[in-house]
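From: lab user (bench 3)
To: helpdesk
Subject: output format question, protein + 1,3-dihydroxyacetonephosphate

Hello, I'm new to running complex predictions and I'm not sure whether the block I got back is the full result or only part of it. Here's what I submitted:
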Amino acid sequence: MARKFFVGGNWKCNGTTEEVKKIVATLNEAEVPSEDVVEVVVSPPFVFLPVVKNLLRPDFQIAAQNCWVRKGGAFTGEVSAEMLLNLGIPWVILGHSERRLILNESNEFVGDKVAYALSLGLKVIACVGETLEQRESGSTVAVVAAQTKAIAERISNWSNVVVAYEPVWAIGTGKVATPAQAQEVHFELRKWLKDNVSAEVATSTRIIYGGSVNGANCKELAAQPDVDGFLVGGASLKPEFIDIIKSATVKKNE
Ligand SMILES: O=C(CO)COP(=O)(O)O
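Helpdesk reply: Thanks, we reran it on our side. This is the complete output you should expect:
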């Protein structure tokens, strides 16, 4: 079965209620390819999840940007997977590099989070990616493989997982990976899944790209055979997010 194109919008730590309502209004008015062609998931900060859920068109879905690693309880400042389910939020982004690097989330901790969220029925956008230093030292594939391995060791069912390859050097820098660079790592990740999980999981799991994706560069990236969509940061706050959603048709016309 073909992998359905996936476009996620990671709003990160941005927005006021007014701004969020404006973004949602723009999305709600947009004419985009049907749900059969593209899965669209937007990820507002926790505090805006209810307002976005109330206002967002029903063919778009919502993701939280993180959740606690196990069952909720005495963990001040955390938001549990149970709470996301209670709010009717189907998706969660886990292991974003901003959390791995700034908040010191280890591969094992991210793996535990992915396993716990999946066990409750949440769908997970699991992020992997190398720093500039790691790329320059030639360890890109080893780094993303280790990040993926820590997840693979803890889960047995990949059907609710989307892997987001987000090279750290391309995030928020305007320095997008070239289509060839993205394709190369996506190919290696898929090969890793084939060799270490199964051929079926490798064929069916979506691997999306993130890092300075915008309305101008999305089509060329989308045309790469192993690029199954995007996780968009900055541009997901702007109307050009709609152009990125529309790049799904590049696949359909193949
Ligand atoms: O981190 C990202 C998405 O999760 C990418 O961010 P930018 O699109 O702003 O580079």
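A quick orientation on your result: The pocket of 1,3-dihydroxyacetonephosphate is lined by residues 10, 96, 166, 171-172, 210-213, 231-235 (CB under 6 Å). Let us know if anything else is unclear.
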